[in-house]
Amino acid sequence: MSINRISKNELLANYDTFLFDADGVLWTGDIPVPGAIEWINLLLEDPSKKVFVLTNNSTKTLEQYMKKIEKLGFGHLGRNNVISPAIVLADYLKSNADKFSGEYVYLIGTENLKATLENDGGVKCFGTGPDSIRDHTDGDFIHKVDMSIAPKAVVCSYDAHFSYPKIMKASNYLQDPSVEYLVTNQDYTFPGPVPGVVIPGSGATSAAVTAVTGRDPKVFGKPHKPMADFLLRRAHVDPKRTVMFGDRLDTDIMFGNANGFSSVWMPTGVHTIVDIHNAKEKGQLDRIPTFTHCFATGD
């Protein structure tokens, strides 16, 4: 199947707010996509245009992310141009200060996410770092865990130290229906530098906890509504004049389509034209992009 192409001139004429996924759209690994820097700078120079990078990566603090952006050549982007699930989640915790301010959160995630949630969300996180079964038993099963700290929420994100004890602790905390179940994003894999190597993402951790508990989480990353709501509050965008550029059908394109934005599939990342064809064959119309585009050629 073919996707309608949209030119740079058509984009500039028809849209005021431009949303971009990062890895696979603006850059791949540590290499900018041809034409992406020039396109972003052109938009930033126009005071009538709004530009946001919407990343599902919560493994970096905003400061670290800005350093990466500058290193890659996108230095004209500012802090207010970047939105991640970590930022949206921290805003949620802060906005619900009557429940969360100064309270504990059990975090399956990175130290950088912990820093963001504590500094910007006003909570106290515990649970990061290694937690091996050998810290609890010499056998094959754990029959009880320390529940002396009562968290107000369990947060699941990417965690290279994900383990059986962490699943067990999260599941037992979530037996209390008043403990909220919050997830940064449900990307099952990360894009990586080595072709053919699968890198499990945040979705792998939350899938295990969801399977054990039977609870449905509140998810803050694309394609879910909290990120769109955050964007609408911050930027006061007009959905009909907003366009989302993405490479993943199950996050970026779904996010654009679900929120009334136009969606532009970029063939520089994870999903291919074959994936679009397969989605259409399966009736997954929410994954079908409105357009496709090439930064380098402008069409």
Automatic annotation (TrEMBL):
InterPro entries, A to Z: HAD-like_sf (IPR036412), HAD-SF_hydro_IIA (IPR006357), HAD_sf (IPR023214), PGP_euk (IPR006349)
Binding site for substrate: 222
A Pfam cross-reference name: Hydrolase_like
Catalytic residue list: 21 (nucleophile), 23 (proton donor)
Binding locations of Mg(2+): 21, 23, 247
Cofactor binding annotation: Divalent metal ions. Mg(2+) is the most effective.
Keyword Magnesium: yes
Cofactor(s) needed for function: Mg(2+)
Record keywords: Hydrolase, Magnesium, Metal-binding
One MF term in the entry's GO annotations: phosphatase activity
UniProt family annotation: Belongs to the HAD-like hydrolase superfamily.
PANTHER family, sorted: 4-NITROPHENYLPHOSPHATASE-RELATED, FI11325P-RELATED
Official protein name in the record: Glycerol-3-phosphate phosphatase
